[in-house]
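User: I'll paste a sequence; please echo it back and then give the predicted structure.

Assistant: Echoing your sequence first, then the prediction.
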Amino acid sequence: MLGVIIGVAAVIAMVAIGQGATQSVAKQIASMGQNQLMIMPGSSSSGAVMFGSGSQQTLSPQDATAIERDCPSAEAVAVIVRTRAQIVYQDMNWAPATVQGCDPAYLTVREWPVVEGEAFTDADLRVAAQVCLVGQTVVDNLFAGEEGEEADRLRDPSHVRNYTEEEWRSFFAEAGLDVEQAHMYEHPVLLEPWLERSGCTGKDAERVRELVAGRTDGDRVRLERICLKGRKRRDG
């Protein structure tokens, strides 16, 4: 009886694992863009050394135009140019796997909706406008605190940005002070009076409420604060 139970349990587990793997693969394929065919330029070589796909320039934008014109089954055709670069924001940086130059059709091909902000247009492409769309990984690594910054700017237009602990330490050092203690904490305040004190009303107030929704408990919002204790540096 024990063997039967274990056997049945093993079958159920294997079926569950198989279904889970199928769903995972289907999700990955969907994220790449369904019914998608990617054509890469050729590979170059030197002696016995192969430099890999894309190392030889064999494609042009005119090829994409010809495919779109002569292949009625192609619903959308996009041109991309890949490179590597480091993205820098304030004192943070991130190196994504690739940075891709493309036209608006690329978002259609990959089935990537813009969840915030707006997509670039053909007009941007014609004038080579410096516009960029970033993915969620870049947002999570570079702009994790940007919602708080936006909320602060809407509530108080004189606000520039919040300083990091490292920046505060450098300010203390420039003033001739050594930092003895530093700690972060959350300070709860009443949300509505906090908005009213700065005259934040209407659509701006509504937007602030949306931005701080994850940091509210009832009628209070938790504001992040940093406290540093310094002592005047002694010469010598």
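Residues 55-142 form one domain. The longest helix spans residues 2-32.
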